Amino acid sequence: MLAFFNGLPARLRAVARMVPPGSRLADIGTDHAYLPIYLVTSGRCPRVIAVEKKWGPYRRALAAVANAGLQERVEVRLGDGFAPLKPGEVDTVTITGLGALTQQDILTTGAAVRQALRRLILQPQGEAGPLRRFLATIGWCLEEEELVYEGGHYYFIMAAGQGESPAYSDVEWRFGPLLLRRRHPLLGVYLLQSMEKLNAARRQLLNAKSERARARLVEVDRQLEDIREVLAWLQDSAK
């Protein structure tokens, strides 16, 4: 089982570590069902529901579960988001590899299922800040955060439970309040690379004349100032 765990993508290993032992879990957008297979074979979850809305990935998940001989412990369901689930059927949900807006839509349309959960574990593709804010608006509070670098990309992973969220600053929402609190070792490198990309975008925007470009330039400058502020804080705290 250790070999299988090591074969999981790093982002899924980080997700697995956030799953409370004994959870009744559903994995939304399961694709090959690698995460559900690991969770049951490792003993972390007694049973997992793997949900996939597209026919091709659904069939791949069925085949992977059958090859592992886990049909009695991993149930693969075809459907969109929380639609294949009943309220109270699971207490933990993982959603990985989907865009932040898609994840927000799933959590909004599946409110009845969501309200019966104890933990959400989310790994959005792209920017994570809006998803952090969204969780607070629907009554969820960040409990854990992780940052993973894999295959040339950074992945933000968050676990949340029901409860009132602290009133974080804009910078905390954007970069992750718990990552900042931990002074996560990858955060500084991530910020430096983000600064390089923003500076490249800024150079192009300086030559643009449209109103939209000028508005974007203002936003880029604000983001650069936020990054400089956090980098200075990280440097001072390391002394």
TrEMBL record:
Coiled coil: 191-230
InterPro entries in the record: SAM-dependent_MTases_sf, TrmK
Top-level enzyme category: transferase
Gene Ontology MF term list: tRNA (adenine(22)-N1)-methyltransferase activity
Protein EC: 2.1.1.217
Record keywords: Coiled coil, Methyltransferase, Transferase
Keyword Plastid: no
Gene3D superfamilies reported for this sequence: 1.10.287.1890, Vaccinia Virus protein VP39 (3.40.50.150)
Any GO BP: methylation
Keyword Ligase assigned: no
Highest taxon above the source species: Bacteria
Official protein name in the record: tRNA (Adenine(22)-N(1))-methyltransferase
